[in-house]
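User: Second chain of the day. Same drill as before.
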Amino acid sequence: MRLTNFDMDALRTFATGIDLGSFTRAAARLGRSTSAVSAQLKKLEDQAGARLVEKVGRGLVPTPNGELLLSYARRILALNDEAVEALRGADLHGWVRLGLQEDFGAALLPRVLGRFARSHPKVQIEGRIGRNSELISKISSGELDLAIAWAGDEILPFARHVADVPMCWLGADNGETFAAVAGSGDTVALAALEAPCLFRTIACDSLDRQGRSWRLSFASPGLAGLGAAVSAGLGITVRTPIGLPAGVKVLEAEAHGLPVLPGIGLQLLRGSENIGRTGEYLASILLEALQEILPAGSDVGSSVGPKGPGGRA
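Assistant: Same format as last time:
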């Protein structure tokens, strides 16, 4: 029996379209036309001998066969990318100190660092999950080589703008949100990280400009506690759609009488101008991975300047 070899580009297009919830967005992400994406999807269905997606409402969702192939596609693509990385950086060695904002830990640690470590066993990575203020302090003092952080008012050298990510109001996904938004005289119950926090400042300033009264109902030192408080209905908060915890959903601002929020800059920070070949290679992989997990509506940038803002979150 002749074996079928699935087309790698078609598999990547299929997986990206499902991840983004839109094959139109997948076309933009992958730099292809919508007609090319449609042709790849049809080719993949021909190779699979089964329908992989079906239309539900205005979107496409995977069929049972599509769900099955998707699980294999993710593993095939991950192994392919790991092999490419291993060959391109076969002689990489050294030590890289990397800091990640809490929002990106769950998404980037397994997606990037685990694969990178397997592909480059001679490279030692010292990872740190922390808040912006901590990461920026350690970048400034030379204690980190690379960091992913939100942009605020600080001016830092060697910063690269990655994207402007939409901010949003988050509430409980169990019907408790109304009480947090208007439970006591139309006063908003606000859950936030302990100060200093960029998102907390933006939430308070936005409510003040709207003339909406608010009270701080819960303060947490980290995102785990903040997510638990919001899912319990103790308050609403402001973050981005990245890494939403269980029991939390994005709130439509206007539907709840809340102010519409701006976007927030995301940056790749360097501890110095020269971070070495290994550091540069890891930085390029981080940038690719970030573009894969950024939510719809993110304005992806590509400019690199000698200076850029920092921030606290």
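The first helix runs from residue 8 to 20.

User: Great, on to the next one.
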